[in-house]
Design brief:
The chain is mainly alpha-helical and about 100 residues long. The chain has a domain of about 70 residues. It is about 65% helix and about 5% strand. The chain has 3 helices and 2 strands. It has a two-stranded antiparallel sheet with strand order 1-2. A hairpin with a 2-residue loop joins strand 1 and strand 2. Helix 2 packs antiparallel against helix 3. The radius of gyration is 18 Å and the shape is flat.
């Protein structure tokens, strides 16, 4: 963590190196598809973390999420389902399966 900017310096360097590595592949379609996969994996992780925080919280949830039924936010569950479908479609497109 950079003390003056409070940003994750190591993560920034790693992501930059990965981006340069993917850019060196040369095929923009492959780079774009890989970027989509990683973005969707991050989106899955965020929504999964939301469900975990809500499940592990005590009586009162630490924050309010619109569209919740009990402690579980329906929007996060739907987002996970939609992201899994989109991730599958992206992988199928990357592999050229029809």
């Amino acid at each position: 963590m950079n003390a003056s900017t409070r940003t994750p310096a190591a993560a920034t360097v790693i992501v930059t190196l990965l981006a340069v590595g993917f850019g060196a592949i040369g095929d923009l379609k492959v780079v774009a598809a890989m970027s989509n996969v990683f973005i969707m994996l991050v989106f899955l992780a965020v929504n999964g973390a939301l469900l975990r925080v809500r499940r592990e919280s005590d009586d009162v949830p630490p924050f309010r999420v619109p569209g919740s039924i009990g402690p579980y936010p329906v929007t996060a569950i739907l987002a996970i389902g939609a992201t899994v479908v989109l991730l599958g479609l992206n992988v199928v497109t990357m592999l050229g399966i029809r």
